[in-house]
Amino acid sequence: MPVIVWFRQDLRLADNPALAAAVATGEEIVPLYILDPGTPLGGASRWWLHGSLAALASGLERCGAPLVLRRGQAADLLPGLIGETKARSVFWNRCYEPAAIARDKALKTALVAQGVEAKSFNASLLAEPWDVRTGSGGPYKVFTPFWRSLSARAPFPSPLPAPKKLRGAARIGSDDLAAWSLLPTKPDWAGGLRAAWKPGETEAARRLSHFLDTCAARYAQARDLPGLEATSRLSPHLHFGEISPRQIWAAADARAHAVPRAASGIASFLREVAWREFSHHLIYHWPGMVERAWKPEFDDFPWTDDPASLAAWQKGCTGYPIVDAGMRELWATGYMHNRVRMIAASFLVKDLLIDWRRGAEWFEDTLVDADLANNRAGWQWVAGSGADAAPYFRVFNPVTQGQKFDPAGDYVRRHVPELARLDNRFIHRPWEAPPAMLSEAGIVLGQTYPKPIVDHARARERALAAFADIRKS
Ligand code: FAD
Question: Which residues are catalytic?
Fold first, then answer.
């Protein structure tokens, strides 16, 4: 009796507990992916998903169990496929977003009622959100004690090897991946994404080894410098489940033992990986934070409705070079460096007083690593409304942040080429450059590059006044 393995955010063969459990039954395996048109998926995520499914499909085909693609709602599709294949079991790896939890709970009940075995596994977290608990038994609200508690659980279970051979079922009808039209065509805007990324499990493993070989030792010092490629760039691979945090932990830990001088960089890297765990912990225990402020007083924040400024931010035309460089990096490559995500998000929420949800939505449309838990937690952290968030009154200054973290302006020059020839001293504040210097660099403010759309000092005062108001009320 075949086992259906329903792939979701675990698009890999190695360290895939649902797949391994299906193999262990000795039965035929039907690997399945369902595209639900009702689930929001940004443009960059659609592009990634296409590549990731193509890579998974070829890996499964090589092992002897071709991937079955179906489009629709799982609750409508699964009973039909179970009838078609005579499957007696459906296995999957758990997701932690509120809508996915609701779907999976209902499905499990329905399948069990039909006499079908439904089993779920943990493939994407080091520890389940309900297992990491404070001394009093509740969920964590602060990262550092969460991290202490999580890291005390190490060693984590060793990653499972990829199966070499799978017992596939007789050919089952599948959609054609190309017919899902996940790739942009008119226009094809994905050239920058293709140049920067390669979805799939093989590339995820390559990126991890490359990072451990070349960047891990100096990660703690270099991770905040967007002009360098000093971080792992594993985030989209992690989001789509092409690599697991257990695989990352095991490889990083082994490297730290083998190369002691890399150990402190690796410890700092694993702490960042744990921020992803913390975001998932939060979204699991406080599902309302997807839409509402985690700190309820922020629900009354007096956000402004300012479509022109929102558009300037989205296009990278705010007149603040570090913000614009970040927004243009995002548009061109589907990625933005973490330090710049914080600066650009702070600019939207505090300098422009635009609701963090508008920013989160834009990121979810344009990031290849768009991840509901990490993104909503990241935005709420910056907005000051999240768990263990930056205090609201700490407003990032885009000029001093640029000077500190991109001192030679390499990052700005790369993404805002119209400023490339500007002297270092003014690269983060072109409006203060002497006219002769601007002209020598070929810059006409307001024409070749925008003047600042707000005055940061005044915007900061306005933000602090708005914050004082909600505190009073
Ligand atoms: P590395 O520095 O190499 O870190 C390794 C891994 O740890 C990352 O791949 C990621 O999975 C995890 N990680 C690192 N930093 C964080 C963090 N602050 N929060 C949660 N996980 C972290 N990350 C996403 O994966 N998806 C998002 O949609 C997302 N949106 C964000 C929005 C805002 C406003 C902010 C401030 C941060 C957001 N992040 C998001 C977190 C972080 O910016 C990215 O995970 C990181 O930049 C990815 O680059 P990397 O893989 O090279 O990270």
Answer: 272, 275, 303, 338, 356, 379
Which residue lies with its CA nearest to atom 9 of ligand 1? 235
Q: Which residues of the chain have pLDDT under 70?
A: none
Helices (H), 230-355: 235-239, 245-258, 263-285, 307-315, 321-333, 338-346
Contacts of 18 (CB under 8 A, 6+ apart): 5, 6, 10, 91, 92, 93, 119, 120, 121, 123
Q: State how far Cα 338 lies from the chain centre.
A: 11
Closest CA to 231 of 240, 219, 241: 219
Kind and range of the H or E run holding 7: strand 3-7
DSSP 293: -
Taking CB atoms and a 6 Å cutoff, what residues make up the pocket around ligand 1?
223, 231-235, 238-239, 272-273, 275-276, 279, 338, 341-342, 345, 363, 367, 369-371, 374-375, 378-379, 382
Per DSSP, the chain holds a count of helices (H) and strands (E) of 20, 5
**Per-residue H/E/C for 174-221:** CCCHHHHCCCCCCCCCCHHHHHHCCCCHHHHHHHHHHHHHHCHHHHHH
Find the 50 Cα to ligand 1 centroid distance in Å: 22
CA distance 93 to 18: 6
Rounded distance, CA 177 to CA 91, Å?
Answer: 22
Sign of the torsion formed by the C-alpha atoms of 357, 361, 363 and 364 = positive
For the question of whether the overall pTM of this predicted structure is more than 0.85, the answer is: yes
Please give the domain boundaries of the chain with CATH numbers for all domains: 3-123 (3.40.50.620), 125-158+200-285 (1.25.40.80), 296-472 (1.10.579.10)
For residue range 174-189, list pLDDT tens digits in order: 999 999 999 999 999 9
Closest CA to 214 of 244, 246, 259: 259
Give the position, in ligand 1's atom list, of the atom nearest the Cα of 211: 3
What digits encode the pLDDT tens for the residues 321-354?
999 999 999 999 999 999 999 999 999 999 999 9
Q: 143: CA distance to ligand 1 center in Å?
A: 15
